[in-house]
Amino acid sequence: MNDAERNRVIARTVVMALSGIILVLVAYQLRDVLLTLYVSGLLAIGLSPVVRRIERNRATPRRKRVPRWLAILSIYVAFLLAVALVLALTLPPLIAQAQQLAADMPTYMNQMLRWLGDRGLMRRGVQWTSLLPNLQAPGAVISNVFGALQGVIGVIGAMITVLVLPFYLLLESQSIRAFFLNFVRPENRARADRIARAVTIKVGAWLSGQLLLAAIIGATATLGYWLIGVPYFYVLGLLAAVGEMIPVVGPVIAAIPAVLLGWTVSPQTALIVVAYTWAQQFVENNLLVPRIMERQVGVSPTTIIVALLVGSTLLGLVGAILAVPTAAILQVIIQELFVNDEKDDTAGKDDKDDKSAKQAKQA
Prior knowledge:
Blueprint: H1 3-29, H2 31-55, H3 68-118, H4 128-131, H5 138-171, H6 173-181, H7 189-228, H8 233-244, H9 249-265, H10 267-297, H11 301-362
Helix pairs in contact: 2-3, 2-5, 2-7, 7-8, 7-10, 7-11, 8-9, 9-10
């Protein structure tokens, strides 16, 4: 290698290193946008099997395929109708119970302060109203309220984007697939297509399983709290359903308000709530999750735990939510790139050995 070639190699290495650094910095600055795109992509991938199933429906005149846009739109309409039905059934009692909870909150706070004072954990005779002067000044409160409103508006905007963007991703899935396949060598396109199909199956199974688990936990929590006699069971059941979407810590966080409200009824009620939520999570972890999630998604419990640790460390609760489907995608890619490669190499070697043995026998 002469000096000119060596200089070109050095220059190319420096340019690639700088390009990599710039790419990482740009990705860090656009991390919120990239995260929104990733979540939208997961939803689009998860809904893709349902869209294809509706497209292939043969119960149509002249056995025509259902247009893709109509299949996608039917899913959105069904989702909105389901949400409207759930809200119609639960929103009136939910609002009534939430208003009653807000009205009774000072009483509950005074009971808690009295209980803490009786056990020497704080000064006796402290009332909820006596704590109000120690709160922040009105100006700081208003500033915090505006900050919270900005955060809520941002979250609502992100949710709308996450709900709308999958529609267009599903509508243009064929062109997007063809675009990315152009960056793959022709001899590797079959493998890339196989990976994409496997990822679609995995993410679809995860999404359907997660929604089914949330519905089961929310319904059983609402019914159980109603039977136990815990007030505001509609609100608590909704919290349990939402908490189920957050792995590991979500059910625990959702159970805390139920235990506290059970304590306002009686200590025995609080203990019954603890026992019921424990039994519910025991059945979920040992019966529902293995049957619904592990068998469908095919990710081992060890992999799930490691993925949850990594995801929660990097992105908090959002990372914990996305940990399982991301682990499933990585599992598909690793299995295809390494395990199947070894199988193909072994199969190719066996074929060569068989061919050599046949040639030797003929000779």
